[in-house]
Amino acid sequence: MCPISTATRAKRRSTHVSSDPHSFIAYAPRGMGLLCAVVCAVRGKDVCGWWIGSVDGEYQTAFFLLDGYFSSDEHPFYATKGGDLYGGWVYDYQVKPPGLDKPVAVDDALCHELEHMQFVFAQEWLSFAGDADAERENALYHEAELAHQPVNLKFHRLNRLSKDEPVWTHRSAGMDVNILKRLMRYWPLECRSVYGWE
């Protein structure tokens, strides 16, 4: 078991050194289909990443930064508007209303890291309506009588999900459940109660 999962928040700060990307996916096979997908990594004391999920029945994406997550104080939960990293962090979901008066610039190196992380994750896990294999993916989901939307998991990846609950999930081995709780508590996505964390 990952030491992060069992340590206190203060202890996690001093022991967490991983910077490999980790992911979480929630899929409702008899409901909406893909509820959310998140990929993130630790960068110093921060957690940064990308998500896609449903907001008012439409899929939305954003890059995010849990600024100073591994420090003792509460810090901003920054997010972009859609995939626009170069427009800066325009939301702070730690406060209400979340819209910032002035965007906070995103470091160029971080922009490139996040774009690469998102690209690799999407290529491995996600299927989009305009993809070359979209018709084949649709047919596989239809034949299996499983929910399928314009954005979904690649069909062959469904075997990686835990299917013990009505919402099937995948949480990579190193994904810190406390990071997920923080994201789900404040993000705008409808996927907030997969684990009763609302």
Tally of structural domains: 1
Percent of residues in helical segments?
25-40%
**Helix-and-strand structural type:** alpha+beta
Calculate the terminal CA-CA distance, rounded to whole Å.
Answer: 25 Å
Average pLDDT taken over every residue: 87
In total, the number of strands is: 10
C-alpha Rg (nearest Å): 17 Å
Biggest sheet features: 8 strands, antiparallel
Q: Kindly report the spatial arrangement of strands forming the biggest sheet.
A: 7-6-5-4-3-2-1-10
SSE sequence, one letter per element? HHEEEEEEEHEHEEH
Bulk shape: globular
Would you identify the regions where 5 or more consecutive residues have pLDDT less than 50? 1-18
- Share of residues in strands: 25-35%
Number of helices: 5
